Amino acid sequence: MKIAFILLVPFLMLSACQTKFGKILKSTDYEYKLKQADEFFADKKYQKAQELYSELFPVFKGSDKFEELYYKYAFCSYYQKDYENAQSMFSGFLGIFPNSPKSEEIAYLQALSFYKQSPQAGLDQVNTHKAIGMMQSYINNYPNSARVPDAQEIIAKSRKKLETKDYKTAQLYFDLSQFRAAGITFNDLINNYPESKEGEQYMLMAIKSYYQYAKLSIPNKQEERYQVVNTEFLNFQDRFPQSTLMKEAESYNNLSQINIKKLQDEQTKASANR
User: Fold this and answer.
1) pTM (2 decimals)?
2) What is the DSSP letter of 244?
């Protein structure tokens, strides 16, 4: 009997809470409902608070209590990790209350909500791009904000994620022997992420890609394509003169020069035999 009673207590408490919440929902005293919603919000019972705020939204629209209601209503979604709805609510708040003292915080959280929706590097990065753009806008609009370092860190993390995705694409092209596409994509990595610590590796991979592309080309296209390897090597040499990868890069350039010489010799012999 004691065990049965112990098991029954949580059920009775839950039932009582549901009954109390049901009475709040049925009430036509909107001030009372708002007070209860605020109490649920303060107690971190965001789902219940959200349900009440949703009902009260049109009731208090235009009143002096609407801004605070909207603010908490938006945070209910954010705290429940419904970031898609949260960013939409934050956007709406900024549209209605552009001069609110809370606008700086909301602008940051709107951008952060996009970052929170950013998926793994291998997936579509639309929200990552949006997070970068909105965080940069936040920095531009609030350059003296204490949140600027956090915004800069999020931009850096987001850019690293985009870099990782682009690198995987470039490496996949190389692994599939699509060497021209690999060379172009590795070069794009260098241009798009000039601050990357992997810049030397990307340039070396571009050289390797263009070398393999030239090697597999039809004979009358090989010379000009080996010349591309030489151009890429000179760029590498200019940008990273002290690189530990210099010898490997130089080896592909040397092979390209040897092959160019062979092709030119063959052309000279062919002309002489005509």
Assistant:
1) 0.83
2) T
